[in-house]
């Protein structure tokens, strides 16, 4: 039986999972590929720690070049993460004619174009199913069987840490800080959770999904990104009263020649399937012009599910090798010369429904003042809740608006927040009512 | 730009959708394939009815041979349905070296092996994403990115007509016959709904999923199949009281060297995502050894979603053609010589939890008699509900069992149903508690 040799950069959690999967299911994989896939070299700075798996003697090296220059290795798996040296290694692998499989969303969100161009020049594949939503095979589906569709929307719950925290805040009525601390103790959140809780990780993944679905380059830095750290249990309670749950949502929308791409806490109807995505699970919902709405759900992270996606990509490439071809499909699923440069719609121009919570002094005329300003900016109120009266004290006033222009809402809040009856910065959460 | 010519057999609803999609999104598809995909011939017995789309003059023919023998046509799309002449046409297309795309689950469930073998001999692809769950790209995912997994379970809601009827029975408390009649008036059910409501369509689809997930041949006739026509609104109400919804579920399980494959109404917990799959939507949940649980959700039928799947397959084949290769992957994702013949587990040997509704005369000692028989067959009771007492009249007694062996349950019911205190055949519905 033919042998296809692969090299692995990075023996962390995911890398260990990939090595384990290639060994555990070796015969299954051979039955599907018609070749034996062999892990020939693994490069990691730490080659002494026991990862709980048995590796062939001499397979480990601290020198990445050993596998980047090995002519027997056809596929390089990059699981180092971060920008450097991952980028340098990936480009060198491509330069040496090797196919690349990576889970590195940060790298692709920022340097994707350069890497895709290099791969096109060399006629090799760059696959990255594991970069978005762990094991869920959503990228393959967009590039593959759903490829005939013009997509109009993407809604994703893409960060397990955030979704775990929000689920517990919702179920327990607990506050953000307390849940985060406990999540860190339980290993569900990193010691430095900034990338997760501030939405950066979600924005990286959204950048990839937007590129794939809309066939466009995305300037990652232009994606509007808000995290969940400013959410309060009060907002989650009000959301429930209005029939919503709050999720950190990655939102992509096609609007003519422009694209919306934004990450922020979002209220979604409790009866939408995305509202039932709890804990560390991920889900992505798309709408295509022919397929209609479609949703994928599964484990969005972790050693085993992510390894499933990485090895799925290796199988894809191995089938090409067995068929005697190099590159079969460009990384984004579009011919390289067909990828567009659609402009990102500025945040001020998006339209949405809004939940706004004002912290006001309970005094006659407050509501008239607030609604007067909203009205002057063409923001119409769908419903309003003013909690129990406590004359002279701070009370929350919650307003749900009809569709309004973000810039108008911002201007109105800036104006209202200067009033002396307003005790603190108002809370604004966008609402997605139909998710189509 | 290179041109890839395809021929379409059958211009019914799906065929019309495929023609429409190929025309509407022609430039998008070219951008993804690098070739123009042209519909060169369409064969249908009826070439006069207006389908609401504009076709090139002379493209329509009543003679399938015109396209089966056309050397310019690389891909034949079979959307006739049924066994003959679909089978003859598919085999002839393969014999003539053409790739085949089909949505014909009945054909593949019964004659798949013969067709796959012919395709292997000729080195052509046979793709059938549209045969299961309409637009949802679940077959591509099993063959493709999820291929590294050993799957343990499949749970599918695969028939839109049944799910529509069950959703309305659940929401409205209505009876089966009334909802079916109304569904027929609204076009959600066929004039002869037997294939749908008796579970045959679901079993065809399950046969394909079991083959793909477990890499085995399945004898379609051996799949245990029960439909929804014997369900009563009483059962749906009791299910809700116990925290369940009733769905027509396709169930596939791997158990060592054997496979369970069965279709029947099933109680699933209300908080499982599958319980929220309503109306004409479909969903499939798998568990793989590395990916864990994963679920796909979307429109399971209809002109446009099904066309999305068919054209997705055409794109897949076209990318191969552009890469200069014929066949890249066998129909089931396994090398043809690696497909196994796993035995189907006889229904009597499955283990499940059961809901049993006895229609008994309300008389002292009835419960003792029933539970005595259950106990004698090692069936242990988890809970029991006996409705309001009406001495001497027929009352429902509902028993939820712990895990028990199907053959024991059958024997116990056969025995109990002969008692003169039992007024009619007892109702039995299987329960799936964890869906993993």
From TrEMBL, chains A, B:
Pathway(s) served: Amino-acid biosynthesis; L-methionine biosynthesis via de novo pathway; L-homoserine from L-aspartate: step 3/3; Amino-acid biosynthesis; L-threonine biosynthesis; L-threonine from L-aspartate: step 3/5
Presence of the UniProt keyword NADP in the record: yes
Top EC category: oxidoreductase
Every ACT domain range: 355-431
EC code: 1.1.1.3
Keywords: Amino-acid biosynthesis, Methionine biosynthesis, NADP, Oxidoreductase, Threonine biosynthesis
Reactions listed under catalytic activity: L-homoserine + NADP(+) = L-aspartate 4-semialdehyde + NADPH + H(+)
Top-level taxon of origin: Bacteria
One of the Pfam families matching this protein, by short name: Homoserine_dh
Entry's family note: Belongs to the homoserine dehydrogenase family.
Protein name: Homoserine dehydrogenase
Source lineage: Bacteria, Pseudomonadati, Thermodesulfobacteriota, Desulfuromonadia, Geobacterales
């Amino acid at each position: 039986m033919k042998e296809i040799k692969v090299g692995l950069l990075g023996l962390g959690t995911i890398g260990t999972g990939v090595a384990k999967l290639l060994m555990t299911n070796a015969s299954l994989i051979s039955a599907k590929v018609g070749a034996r896939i062999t892990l020939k070299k693994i490069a990691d700075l730490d080659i002494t720690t026991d990862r709980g798996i048995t590796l062939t003697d001499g397979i480990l090296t601290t020198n990445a070049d050993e596998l980047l220059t090995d002519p027997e290795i056809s596929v390089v798996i990059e699981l180092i993460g971060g920008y450097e040296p991952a980028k340098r290694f990936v480009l060198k692998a491509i330069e040496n004619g090797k196919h690349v499989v990576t889970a590195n969303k940060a790298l692709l969100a920022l340097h994707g174009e350069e890497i895709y161009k290099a791969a096109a020049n060399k006629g090799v594949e760059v696959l990255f199913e594991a970069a978005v939503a762990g094991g869920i095979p959503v990228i393959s589906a967009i590039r593959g069987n759903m490829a005939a569709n013009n997509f109009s929307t993407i809604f994703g719950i893409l960060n397990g840490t955030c979704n775990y925290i929000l689920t517990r805040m919702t179920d327990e009525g607990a506050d953000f800080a307390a849940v985060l601390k406990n999540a860190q103790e339980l290993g569900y959140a990193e010691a430095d959770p900034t990338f997760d809780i501030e939405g950066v990780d979600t924005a990286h993944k959204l950048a990839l999904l937007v590129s794939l679905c809309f066939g466009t380059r995305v300037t990652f830095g232009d994606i509007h990104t808000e995290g969940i750290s400013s959410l309060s249990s009060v907002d989650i309670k009000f959301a429930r009263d209005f029939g919503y749950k709050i999720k950190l949502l990655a939102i992509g929308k096609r609007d003519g020649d422009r694209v919306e791409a934004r990450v922020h806490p979002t209220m979604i109807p409790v009866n939408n399937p995305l509202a039932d995505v709890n804990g560390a699970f991920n889900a992505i919902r798309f709408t295509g012009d022919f397929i209609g709405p479609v949703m994928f759900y599964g484990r969005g992270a972790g050693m085993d599910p992510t390894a499933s996606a990485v090895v799925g990509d290796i199988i894809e490439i191995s089938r090409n090798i067995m068929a005697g071809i190099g590159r079969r499909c460009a990384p984004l699923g579009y011919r390289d010369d067909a990828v567009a440069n659609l402009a990102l719609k500025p945040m001020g121009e998006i339209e949405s429904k809004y939940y706004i919570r004002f912290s006001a002094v309970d005094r006659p005329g407050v509501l008239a003042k607030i609604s007067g300003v909203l009205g002057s900016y063409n923001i119409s109120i769908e419903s309003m809740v003013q909690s129990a009266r406590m004359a002279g004290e701070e009370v929350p006033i919650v307003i749900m608006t009809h569709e309004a222009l973000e810039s108008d809402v911002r201007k109105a809040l800036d104006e209202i927040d200067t009033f002396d009856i307003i005790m603190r910065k108002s809370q604004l959460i966008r609402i997605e009512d139909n998710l189509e």
